[in-house]
Amino acid sequence: MNFKEKLESDKFVICGELGPPQSANAEVIRKKSIHFKKRIDAVNITDNQTAIVRMSSIASAKILLDHQIEPIIQMTCRDRNRIAIQSDLLGAAGLGIHNVLCLTGDYQKFGNHPEAKPVFDMDSIQLVATLSNMNDGFFLSGDLIKTPPSFCIGAASNPFADPMEMRLIRLEKKISAGAHFIQTQPVFDLERFKEFMRCVVNSGLHEKIAILAGVMPVKSSNALLYMKKEVPGVRIDQSYISRLQTAKDPKEEGVRIAVEIIKEIQKIPGVRGLHLMPVMWESITPVVLEEAGL
Amino acid sequence: MLNFATRQKKEISSAERKISTVLRYFEDIIKVPFFQCQHCGECLLSSTAFICCQRCPKRLRNGPCGGTGENGSCEVYPDRKCIWYRIYKRSKLIRRVPFLYSVKKIHNWNLEGSSAWLNVFTRRIDPPALFRPQPNEKDTNSQK
């Protein structure tokens, strides 16, 4: 059963996340792949996240695929125009990678090459539409694709950025553009997430698309403080920060918080799965899942 | 199939370019001081509550990215307000929120710097949403 079939079934889907190395060492990915052997349905491969140069997401996905792990490649509009995007997507489909998460991408300013030219030829919604056009057998130019790919199209949603109504409009647009699943930003504010999901369920959007809630286990309170200060569009409950600050073993407390959030998320109607994204701490993925009883 | 790519209908002739230059002079008199027009040539003002969305650093045409801060600040320039945050607030104020639901076409870079008025006249781009039925009647797949 592949990822797309799992989304169509009633299964509670769990995605992991892997950040490719900032070097040519493919061994790093092979080592990290061990953490995703059990219970993980697919693994996100980030595409130069926060605009820092890393190994290509399609190449890393191929390495994972060789280890029998299903990858979801992230595709951002920051570095490629429509010609490069379509060509890379055809290449990915040719390598047997069929899951794509469409993102607009972080601005260069935050990365290690702030002088680079921003491309942003299209945005994430138009990228979703491009993929669904390619699935139908057409390039953006209107030319026919002889052997069309069959992508499972993902998109991101941030329930925590203001205004929330605009986020729901974007979600609807992504559905009408042809997305199959949504991964959210990490949940650190359950009240806001519940409110968002209530609006989604009330408008019946959860029946049209599978929503996977993001969960991020953190090592220390500094990580949360950094996110609160530096990462835009993230809401963090103050109680989590103080809990981590007072804890004897912050790592253990971080896992406990992640497990608590997972258990709360499972109760929320409309959520179809989880997206576990420990940043540069992939080894914790199996531990969190075991503690949460998944 | 969603028809969202701006297709080149026919090549822009040199005569059209000249007319465009003249027309843009008049267009700029209105659009630059009032809307801080960025000359994309595919004007969206009518569906973005008359705030030019091309002032976004990422030049997004379909709504804000995920980086809008808690008080609506831009992720790239935190001292500025996110342009889409302002668009949403004003759309709500003047009851133009339904216009935000339609998926906007991919930008045709050949039209960059040309006169949007001429492009409407030559049918290269869609006419302003003013003269259209309300999108929530037309856009069935996003509203049902």
Can you describe this structure in just a few lines?
The complex is a heterodimer of chains A (294) and B (144). Chain A has 294 residues and is of the alpha/beta class.
Keywords:
heterodimer, A: about 290 residues, alpha/beta, TIM Barrel, eight-stranded parallel β-barrel, 8 strands, globular, B: about 140 residues, mainly alpha, 5 helices, about 0% strand
Give an overview of the whole structure.
The complex is a heterodimer of chains A (294) and B (144). Chain A is of the alpha/beta class. Chain A contains eleven helices and eight strands. In chain A, strands 1-2-3-4-5-6-7-8 form an eight-stranded parallel beta barrel, surrounded by five helices. In chain A, helix 5 packs parallel to helix 6 (164-177) and helix 9 (238-246) runs antiparallel to helix 10 (250-267). The longest helix of chain A is centred in the last third of the chain and has 18 residues, at 250-267. The mean pLDDT of chain A is 92. By secondary structure, chain B is mainly α. In chain B, 33% of the residues lie in helices and 0% in strands. Chain B is built from five helices and no strands. Chain B has helices spanning 14-35, 83-93, 116-121, 135-138, 140-143. The model of chain B is unreliable at 137-144 (pLDDT under 50). At the A-B interface, helix 5 and helix 6 of A face helix 2 of B.
